[in-house]
Amino acid sequence: MKRPEEDRAAAPPDRVFADSIGSLSRALRGSVVSNIVAASLLALAMHGWYPTQVLAAWLAGLVLVHLWRPLWRAAVRQPQPTPLSPARRARRVEVDAFILAAYWGASSVLFFHANSSLVPFYWALVLGGTAAGSIGAHAHHPRVMWIFLPTLITPFAVRALLEADGSTRFLGAGMLLLLAYLLYYGRQHARTLQRMIALRHENSALVDELQSQALALREANAAKSRFFAAASHDLRQPLQAMNLYMSVLQGGQEGRSDPATLARLDECLSALDRLLGVVLDLTRLDSGQVTPQPRPFAVQPLLERLAGTYEAAARHKGLQMRVHPTSAWAVSDPALLERVLANLLTNAIRYTERGGVLMGVRRSEQSLCLFVADTGIGIAAEAHESIFEEFVQLNNPARDPDKGHGLGLPTVRRIADLLGHPVELRSQPGRGSVFALRLPPASRGSESTTPEPPAAATAPLQGRVLVVEDNALVRDALVQLLTGWGLTVQAASDGDAACAALTQASDAFDVVLSDWRLPGTRDGLAVLREARACQHGLKLAAILTGEDVQLLRSAGKEFPVLRKPLRPLRLRTLLARYLRESKLP
Predict the structure, then answer these.
(1) Most buried of 38, 269, 366, 584, CB within 10 angstroms?
(2) CATH of the domain at 344
(3) For residue 565, is the peptide bond before it cis, meaning its omega torsion is within 30 degrees of 0?
């Protein structure tokens, strides 16, 4: 079983090896002077036994062994060599180490003076010191150590063991023992160095990761600040208008209503609802609440349906809405894909003044390119990424809500990433834009296109409804809305009161609508479970909430979940589906 240190050391082998060779090269450059000094002292010690010319030639040969590469480049006027890879540098170091060790080893045999016990002792002293001193450098690349040490020491040790003198043979045996110890120690030292270098790289990687995370955090905080600043501005605009219109209504004559002012109020509410809806959609996409359900489908009906939806808006601006016919089939979630294309079409129509919008499919061997092209104002290349950020609008410095809020393209990017369809953009200022999605193709098949008939949205409803909501304003508004639809409504402000109403009611409830977060000991889920247990004729029990990811995952399996802000039409459609509508005479 490997120790954690070994696992970490093995983590970045290429970088560890490159660092090791670099450290080895630097250490060897520093050892040249000490090697020549040791050889000079040895030559002085042997001066009484060998001629000066011989010793000088030997020293010159040693200097040549150390400096032959740069001297050769200077002699042939070779330009400065290009940087070598770590592997080639390692091979060069191995060759140079072998040449140097062989020179020392051969010299120790040639200058072995059998008639003097001092000369072998001098050689043993210098060779042992040279070998021990080389460990610190060669341990960076153990292969050099295994080449250098035996080549350096073995010739002298064998020569000493062949002598008849016992003390000389003892000196040779001692050198072999020294060789074995240095190889063992060098091996341990090499492992330690490798671990240290690996840990240094890991620490450097951790520092880089922390710095990148800190940068990402700062960018996220800045993006959050921009998001809230833009969102608060866009939310305040319709709220401010609503306050002014309310003042107009309050200042009018009693008992009279102004239809124009009421219509403006409705527009403000719709704008506020749309903005909150898009923000909540982004939140759901970011929190993983949306799960795509891909299936094969025909692309042409989807394009025709979208063209029919947006043709009136295009015609109003004098634009052409065209669909390039296609028989292609693709694999995706049609509902989510339709939202993506709807956002792209909205932007295309909004920023195109003349010409038109074209939708179509280009085929390739491995994918389908579904595109929306326009002849609009275009987008500069430097803005191709920033337009996918929240509340970024290139041509709306006054933040006119009629030009959108800068959330359409962020929604497109989120949904496209969720579906696995990369978004491509080709655009130049003044030459229009082409947004494209890459979809996997599918073989032609059959799909059900018959939708479930919607319930009538205007027929009065019949039934008893229990509304559980702790917010008095929301509770009162919901009671008035349901009563206006013909329902008999009872309200409760907390879970305990709701459970009491369920158990004490003389007539059974048909529907229970409950907020999730309630004061007291019972939340909305507990209320709905109690209602299902004691109201056997219950037709619908639903949760009303503006949050929580975990709730949607757990409660959604038991009860329908209606997200706030609640659209009245959606609520009425749901009620009509579960209740029997009364027939008008």
Answers:
(1) 38
(2) 3.30.565.10
(3) yes
**Measured at the alpha carbon of residue 531, what is the angle toward residues 526 and 533, in degrees to the nearest 5?**
95
| CA-wise closest residue to 419 among 411, 431, 427, 407 | 411
CA angle, 364 as apex, 363 and 367 as ends, to 5°? 90
The angle at the Cα of 119, spanning 115 to 124, to the nearest 5 degrees, equals 130
- Rounded distance between C-alpha atoms, residue 583 and residue 572, angstroms: 16
List b or e across 84-102, with b for residues whose CB sees 16 or more CB atoms inside 10 angstroms. Answer: eebeebbeebbebbeebbb
Let me know if residue 270 belongs to a domain.
no
Rounded Cα distance between 255 and 355, Å, is 50
Q: What's the number of CA atoms in the CB half-sphere (13 Å) around residue 552?
A: 14
| CB count in 10 Å sphere of residue 298 | 19
Cβ atoms of residues 415 and 289 within 8 Å: no
Dist CA 345 CA 435 (whole Å)? 10
Residue pLDDT, tens place only, 323-347: 999 888 999 988 888 888 888 888 8
Q: Considering just the CA atoms, what is the radius of gyration of the chain in Å? A: 42
Please tell me whether the overall predicted TM-score, pTM, comes out greater than 0.70 for this model.
Answer: no
Range of the domain at 525: 464-578
In this structure, is the dihedral angle defined by the CA atoms of residues 85, 89, 92 and 94, taken in order, positive or negative? Answer: negative
Nearest to 575 by CA among 544, 532, 529, 536: 544
| Residue 39, in any domain of the structure | yes
CA 343 to chain centre: 25
Q: What is the pLDDT at residue 296?
A: 92
How far apart CA 360 and CA 377 sit, in angstroms, is 20
pLDDT exceeds cutoff 80 at 359: yes
CA distance 29 to 472: 84
- At residue 321, what is the residue type? M
In angstroms, the first-to-last Cα distance of the chain is 84
CATH number at residue 502: 3.40.50.2300
In a domain, 585, yes or no: no
Task: Compute the distance between CA of residue 188 and CA of residue 198 in angstroms, rounded to an integer.
Answer: 15
| Dist. CA 222–CA 245, nearest whole Å | 35
- Report how far residue 286's alpha carbon sits from residue 284's, in angstroms, rounded to the nearest whole number: 6
Number of domains in the chain: 3
* Full DSSP string of 162-211: TSS-HHHHHHHHHHHHHHHHHHHHHHHHHHHHHHHHHHHHHHHHHHHHHH
pLDDT band of 581, cuts 50, 70, 90: very low
Q: Cα(10)–Cα(178) distance, rounded to whole angstroms? A: 31
What mean pLDDT, rounded, does the chain reach? 78
Q: Dig out the tokens for 476 from the structure.
A: 């009162």
CA 241 to chain CA mean position, Å? 41
How far CA 53 is from CA of 41, 66, 106, in Å, comes to 16, 20, 18
DSSP 423: E
Q: What are the backbone dihedrals phi and psi of residue 535, each rounded to the nearest 5 degrees, phi first? A: -115, 90
- Per-residue pLDDT at 541 exceeds 80: yes
d(CA 511, CA 539): 6
Answer yes or no: do 299 and 348 share one domain: yes
Q: Report the amino acid identity of residue 402.
A: D
Tell me which of 61 and 86 has the higher pLDDT.
Answer: 61
CB 93 within 8 A of CB 24: yes
The pLDDT assigned to 338 comes to: 87
